[in-house]
Design goal:
1 helix, alpha+beta, 58 residues
Length: 58
């Protein structure tokens, strides 16, 4: 299972397998959401990855 937390337009988007599942105002909320999904057993097969992408600063 692959999770991504992506900063975009001032929001933090949580995606699972490339599909948006939640959107938060703060990064910590997005990471807490992923942690809660993992605690609930969302990673039953044991293989999980998490990446965090930040928007370009300029």
């Amino acid at each position: 299972m692959k999770y991504e937390v992506i900063e975009t337009a001032g929001d933090w988007v949580v995606q699972r397998e490339g599909v948006e599942v939640a959107r938060f105002a703060e990064q910590a909320e997005a990471l807490d959401h992923v942690a809660a999904r993992l605690k609930e057993g969302a990673a039953e097969d044991g293989a999980v990855s998490l990446s965090v992408r930040y928007r370009a600063r300029g």
